[in-house]
Amino acid sequence: MGNRSGGGPAHCPAAVSALLLAAALGGCGLAAEQDDAARRPTASVSASAAPTGSAAQPSASTPAPTPTPTPGKGPACPVLRCTSVLVTGDMLVHAQLWQQAEQDAAAAGKPGWDFVPLLEGQRRYIDNSDLAICHQETPVAGPEGPFSAYPSFNVPPQIITAIKAVGYQACTTASNHTIDRGTDGLLRTLDQLDAAGLKHTGSYRTETESQGVLILQTPAAKVALIQATYGLNGLVPDHPWQVDMLDAPAMIAKAEKARSLGADIVLAAMHAGDEYASAPNAQQQEVAHALVDSGQFNLVYGHHTHSVLPIENYKGTWIVYGLGNGVTELSPRHVVNNEGLLVRVQFGQDSAGRWSTTDLAWAPSVMVRDPYRWCSVASDVPQGTCTGPEADAATRQRTIGVLESMGAAAAGAHELLVTRER
After folding, report:
1. What was the pLDDT predicted at 71?
2. Closest by alpha carbon to 92, among 115, 72, 75?
3. Measured distance CA(404)–CA(269) in Å, rounded
4. pTM as predicted
């Protein structure tokens, strides 16, 4: 949204795994990082990747090897193989945040802007997940600016290096602000994401790139990510393919392509909804339900409203309608703008090779200032008190009341207590 509110494939023998990884990395031009492959996902749109669960066939005289469990990070894995994905809301950078980043850089004796302290509280959650995905809502300027906030964002690119530094591996980029600064701003943002080593989808440099599918490799699975926005604030891109617009048939077609390319898990991210709402609007529900009804998606989640929205289990598939803000400056008028939701979903593969959700956990957050920081208000208080015991409790209860309003708790969603995990 962005109005200024006041202010691996299934486990195989080693040789076959190596062949599958090589095929995946050989893709259609999306370079994949190979450093620390067990921790950092790689990206591919390769049609040459072997089908999910494929493995070398043993000879009649050779017994099949026993699969090695791949538990993944996060909660205990109830099946042989699991992977976890963490998602957060809008990275919405206003002037007060880059002023804070400048102060934090100066305090550390560094030039420029340092957003890592702002995001540091998220690191522990990211470290306990196999894959972490952000939403980079605003286009970035050059390293020295000039910078601007609402209504036409052009923010310090150092936010992207900080996103990488705290552990994110990918970001979505389609929002109502994607083309605030035209094609130049779109290209700058994608170039900065590439320079930081962050995978991305939702906006594109070329028509060919827009036809690809982002597939991220975790230790246990290939995770496809498909994202779109409801609009562009009335602006018109230079080319219609530059930004993915919210359209269920188009997203389903991409999901089908992802499956054909070997994706085990497919995620949909929607940038949509009514600002500061406490419930999804008709468009959000219609599109989310259509995506689930297609049978192609394992999770649907959203951002844009600057408020936490309900979590729904629809026909056995989770829909997280709104994550609130990942980071933002404080609003004196809309308290919900200052709050957010971090969600981690674990997926498991059964003996038939099918992937399904085995756990969904959430952690509520709030922005604090002097200095500006993202702060978890989960009941295990991993960062200590944020704004004060009473205020933190009010934020937590307000968030829980909204997110559970469509039956999430009864369906098994629960609070993420990161301090109690291994």
Report:
1. 86
2. 115
3. 20
4. 0.86
